[in-house]
Amino acid sequence: MRRGLARLALAAFLAGGLAACDESGQQATTTPAGGHTPIAQTGGTGTAARSNLPIGTGFDFYVLSLSWSPSYCEAEGEDANRQQCESGRPYAFVVHGLWPQFEQGWPESCGTGDPYVADDIVASLRDIMPSAGLIGYQWRKHGSCSGLDQRDYFKVLRAARERTVVPAEYRRLDDYASVAPGAVGAAFLQSNPQLDAQGIAVTCDDRYLREVRVCMTRDLAFRACPEVDRRACSLQKAVMPPVRGK
After folding, report:
1. Predicted TM-score of the model (pTM)
2. CATH number of the structural domain spanning residue 87
3. What would the pLDDT profile of 12-61 be if each residue is shown by its tens digit?
4. Which of 153, 189, 191, 202 has the most other CB atoms within 10 Å of its CB?
5. 35: number of Cβ within 10 Å
6. Mean of pLDDT over the chain
């Protein structure tokens, strides 16, 4: 995020600026449909663990996009994906995608001889990516540009998610919260000490906080990404709807 906003947001965070969030549901203990254990409490994968990961080719870095699922469901209404948004789906931050990037711009839809994601891969991702349609679309549009096959791409995607700690106060909300996007970004910086202040962007539409985007090298170290950072939300306040289901 922009340096000035990041400094202000971090100061607000350290001063208790996240008080607007509903703290009654900070610890998410519910297991999503499919029997997977939530990973919101995990993160910080070390260099040794990352050294065993497949390394993509043909691009400069990744953006891990984490979507606040309740914002998507409420904003899209009847058009929202039912697998993701039915009332029994207690999704909070989910993986929207892992996107290969150039320093300027990005590749997409690079073509693949294997356009459909195998059922066992889809099943293995249900805890972090809530619908088969999303998984398939992200593979065709973004994974196909990673230089990796399906299994390796989604292995890296999961590792990127596990590397990123979601702050405790955003693992679950039980009521609507009006938040400063900069404060949300500051909370992620606080929870991920190696994260660069210019390596994260919080995005929104004209009402809802939509995503947190984190930049990583091809071996999943955090890094700065000024071009992505410049697309951060400019609202003073954005709405985060509550998580659906229990």
Report:
1. 0.81
2. 3.90.730.10
3. 333 333 333 332 233 233 333 344 444 544 455 555 456 689 999 999 99
4. 202
5. 9
6. 83
Distance between CA 218 and CA 103 in Å, rounded? 13
Q: Which residues contact 182 (CB under 8 A, 6 or more apart)?
A: 1, 5, 6, 8, 9, 12, 202
245 lies in some domain: no
**8 is a domain residue:** yes
Give the residue numbers spanning the domain of 228.
3-240
Half-sphere exposure of 13 (CA within 13 A, CB side): 20
- What is the rounded average pLDDT of the residues 197-203? 96
Residue 31 inside a domain? The answer is: yes
Query: What is the rounded CA–CA span in Å between residue 76 and residue 105?
Result: 27
pLDDT band per the 50, 70, 90 thresholds, residue 230: confident
